[in-house]
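Notes from the 1:1 (GR / supervisor)

We went over the backlog. Supervisor wanted to see one worked example end to end before approving the batch request, so GR pasted a single chain during the call. The sequence is below; no edits were made to it. Supervisor asked that the structure be written out right there so they could see what the output format looks like.
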Amino acid sequence: MRDNRKKEVIIIGGGLAGLACGVQLAKRGVDFEILEATDRVGGRVRTDIVDGYRLDHGFQVFLTAYPAAQQLLDYDRLQLRPLEPGALVRCGDQFSSLLDPRRRPASILASALSPVGSLSDKLRMARLSRDVCRGELDELWEHIAQPTRYRLPGLNFSDRFIEQFLRPLLGGIFLDPELQTSSRMMEFVLRMFAEGDAAVPAQGMQAIPQQLAERIPTDRLQLKSTVSEIEGTTIRMTDGSQRSADQIVIATEGPAAARLLKIDENIPWQQVSCLYFTADEAPLQTKQMILSGETSGPINNLCELSTVAPEYAPAGKTLISVSVLKSDVPAMELHEPVVKQLRSWFGEQVDTWSLLRTFHIPFALPEQSIDRMQTVIKPVQRAGMPIVCGDHRETASIQGALSSGIRAAEAALGGLGDAG
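Structure output shown during the call:
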């Protein structure tokens, strides 16, 4: 007689990878269960509602060109609010707009005249955007890889353009101000920006995992269910109970997966601090990302989120996110130096702003250095071991999490004798 605790597949982790895996299994009629340790799905993609403001756990954007997202998500239901392509760059004592002329042809003259970089830099940027869009996406993973910090000078970008625009842009995406990230990842991200929008869902980034969760039967998703150990096909819970499954999928963060697998796999992480401010008015009324091209001050990038998505703030209020990468200042002491830099940008109006919350996220993104990205698409299963998925198995991105979850479902189906 089958144990009523036994499932065909048990997925440990209700982040994007685990949910993607669950969606695929639900479509195939598999008897599965998702065990999520926290009180909600989404993993690092979370949104808190504080006094009517939607605060994502760290500033995040969704790139609509992600192939796995196009396969799994209903974009209309997400009510995506796109950012304006390009960026506003703070250089000296002014903000200079740098738009993407491929996406906004009318901006060609304005972008050419922008003091951010030379005309040659902008032509090289256009050429790079064109080149990374050639061929199939998988072909990017075969390109020669080197740290982005060396790849950019090799493409003949000027030091000024790198420091004022590319370092804060790419550093903010990878949470890597030293740009040690593999150039393959840089090319992947630039392709995604070129082929689609960077956007936020109207109801916050958590709308993405929530939509996936809605496609999974409610009795298949168990919250506040923490796994302590795996022995063969048996799962032991911290409450003392046990479960078993024909196939086990570990869809946790890399360190938790290594613990459950009982292997020594040290995956370095990038960190970020995000400060959310509320104001009566947006200082620039822009939907562009604002980058710091300055060499001093803690701020890397800023976004007027409620200008992009009015749903992020109560009516008549503005929500501003400020991202700080590696800093010598402790996270809880960032307020004063951040406000000092903001005041130098926007003047005394900053004194009327209120700090809503500071998120310090020490495990924000897996590191994507040359060593980590030698094999970009990593196997989801090793001989005799559970299936493993998550963005640490592919690119550290929403695409990587969703895609690895799809691959994990295919592996689980194959193990159940349903490879079709």
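Supervisor's comment: The chain has a mean pLDDT of 92.
Batch request approved.
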